[in-house]
Design a protein that fits this description.
This protein is mainly alpha-helical. 51% of the residues lie in helices and 6% in strands. A hairpin with a 5-residue loop joins strand 1 and strand 2. It starts with 7 loop residues before the first helix and ends with a helix.
């Protein structure tokens, strides 16, 4: 199978999640090499965990969905990419997925201190502000029945703009608040964090890459109703 070029939006998404460093935990090489006179080159390579075609490394594994989904790709330097593909029995699907998950979590954790709350009252206040913002933009610009009279193109353009500038950043902040402040949550709330994380992740994939997922997990209303006492 001829390998198609990875969509630019997908590559941008992967670079953001990787922080611009090789996702091999034993390497973490900077994927941008700078020279004098303010010039630089980027050396990142998009490594498929499950390959394109039936003869590549780890081709005995199967994937459900798009082979070019960000979930199936990690960013590596050229050397690490070559190594994992020449020794697939050592660098299995599970091992590479662990690299990806731990690396991306590490990037997020670097900024986690800003989300730490002193008490539940402070936590609830921050969640309320972000969730109220999302509700406002959804009701005002989202694909609701009340906006069916507006042309589809105008409706989509305005909603897409606010998804990128408001909804996604707010979702990310709420997810980090939930993860960092688990000790302030009730047991049922902690149990719903993974569901919200799946929703946030799939929502981003649909809006920031060329992959479209039909089965995006629904927004877990019960989580926020419990937190906000609704």
């Amino acid at each position: 199978m001829k390998r198609k070029k990875l969509p630019a939006q997908t590559l941008k998404y992967l670079l953001a999640r990787s922080g611009g460093f090789c996702e091999n935990p034993d390497c973490n090489k900077d994927l941008f090499v700078f020279f004098t006179k303010k010039t630089f080159i980027d050396i990142e390579q998009a490594a498929h965990i499950i390959p394109v075609g039936d003869k590549g490394p780890r081709s005995n594994e199967k994937i459900v969905g798009d082979i070019d989904s960000p979930d199936n790709i990690l960013l590596l330097c050229p050397n690490c990419h070559s190594i994992i593909d020449k020794a697939p029995s050592e660098y299995t699907r599970d091992r590479l997925l662990l690299w990806k998950t731990e690396h991306e979590n590490k990037v997020v954790t670097l900024f986690s201190s800003k989300y730490t709350c002193k008490n539940r009252e402070e936590f609830v206040s921050k969640i309320l502000e972000l969730n109220s913002s999302n509700n406002y933009y959804y009701k005002t610009y989202g694909p609701t029945k009340e906006r069916e009279s507006i042309s589809i193109d105008d409706r989509k353009d305005s909603w897409d703009d606010y998804v990128i500038s408001k909804i996604i950043p707010n979702n990310r902040e709420m997810l980090q608040l939930l993860k960092v402040n688990k000790e302030l949550l009730k047991t049922n709330e902690v149990e719903l964090i993974s569901l919200y994380e799946d929703h946030v992740h799939s929502f981003e994939i649909n809006h920031l890459t060329d992959e479209k997922r039909a089965n995006v997990p629904l927004f877990p209303k019960e989580l926020f109703q419990s937190i906000l006492g609704e």
